[in-house]
């Protein structure tokens, strides 16, 4: 069977969501001045600081009228409590940012890989989730459907439960992931899932999770696509959005 000109590009967008963490910036303390005096306070409270004795060390803030986290572009104020995660180095990345499957032909599945890396500093735990905006589609609204895997005795796959996809006659688009903190169903060879789609009002699915501190973890995601004999010729695209939540 001849080669079909079906060019597919998957654009990957990384989104970082951080709880109890931010980049540290210098900020001025409370200051009161008159013609003859300048009083500088280290905190916007009645009192604050570090107290020590032979057996204990206490860091406190007292008298804050509004406790909470207040943020604007470039700055964050954590008032009324101590935050041990502030200033920690937190990183999240997805590589590659664009996946091009090239020209496809029927019965010849193509796989591409991307690498997900997360470092959570001193924060306790993290989660990584992913969602697609829609199935692979052309501007003319032709689609390559999300895979349901091989079916039969091995069962079908859903976006929250994987199944075996090894038959070259099974078409669609899906993924599997390898790594230390991935869902259990991916531990079996040949297991894939389709992505949840925001167009179908489906929520991002968990693909990596840890409860540990000070870890640097990686996941290798294999994206797989196969086309049916009557697949319309065209350029198919979709967007994958990854999000990380740190400090769970």
Describe the structure.
The chain has 248 residues and is mostly beta strands. It folds into two domains: 4-20 and 88-246, no CATH class; 30-79, no CATH class. The protein is 0% helix and 48% strand. The chain is built from no helices and 19 strands. The strands form seven sheets. It has a five-stranded mixed β-sheet, with no helix packed on it. A four-stranded antiparallel β-sheet has the order 8-10-18-15, with no helix packed on it. A two-stranded antiparallel ribbon has the order 2-3. The chain starts with a strand and ends with a strand.
Question: What brief labels describe this structure?
Answer:
0% helix; 2 domains; five-stranded mixed beta sheet; single chain; 248 residues; mainly beta; elongated
Would you summarize the structure shown here?
Helices cover 0% and strands 48% of the residues. It contains no helices and 19 strands.
The fraction of residues in strands falls at over 45%
Strand arrangement, major sheet: 9-1-19-11-17
Q: Which oligomeric form is depicted?
A: single chain
Q: What is the mean pLDDT?
A: 81
- Please tally the helical runs, counting DSSP H or I stretches of 4 or more residues: 0
Distance between the termini: 52 Å
Q: Provide the gyration radius in Å.
A: 25 Å
Structural class: mainly beta
Tell me the domain tally.
2
Number of strands: 19
String of helices and strands: EEEEEEEEEEEEEEEEEEE
Major sheet summary line: 5 strands, mixed
Q: Helicity range of the residues?
A: under 10%
Overall shape: it is elongated
Poorly predicted ranges: 20-28
């Amino acid at each position: 069977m001849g080669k079909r000109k079906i060019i597919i590009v998957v654009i990957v967008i990384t989104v970082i969501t951080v709880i109890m963490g931010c980049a540290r910036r210098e900020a001025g303390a409370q200051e009161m001045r008159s013609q003859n005096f300048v009083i500088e306070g280290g905190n916007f409270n009645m009192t604050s600081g570090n107290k020590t004795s032979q057996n204990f060390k206490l860091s406190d803030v007292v008298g804050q009228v509004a406790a909470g986290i207040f943020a604007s572009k470039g700055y964050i104020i954590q008032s009324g409590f101590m935050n041990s995660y502030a200033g920690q180095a937190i990183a999240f990345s997805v590589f590659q940012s664009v996946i091009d499957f090239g020209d496809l032909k029927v019965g010849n599945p193509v796989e591409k890989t991307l690498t997900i890396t997360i470092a959570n500093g001193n924060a306790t735990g993290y989660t990584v989730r992913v969602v697609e905006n829609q199935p692979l589609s052309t501007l003319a609204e032709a689609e390559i459907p999300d895979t349901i895997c091989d079916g039969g005795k091995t069962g079908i796959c859903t976006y929250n439960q994987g199944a075996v996809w090894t038959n070259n006659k099974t078409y669609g688009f899906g993924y599997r992931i390898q790594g230390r903190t991935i869902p259990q169903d991916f531990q079996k060879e040949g297991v894939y899932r389709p992505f949840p789609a925001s167009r179908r009002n489906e929520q991002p699915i968990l693909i990596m999770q840890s409860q540990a501190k000070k870890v640097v973890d990686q996941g290798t995601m294999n994206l797989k696509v196969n086309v049916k004999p009557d697949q319309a010729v065209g350029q198919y695209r979709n967007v994958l959005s990854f999000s990380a939540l740190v400090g769970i």
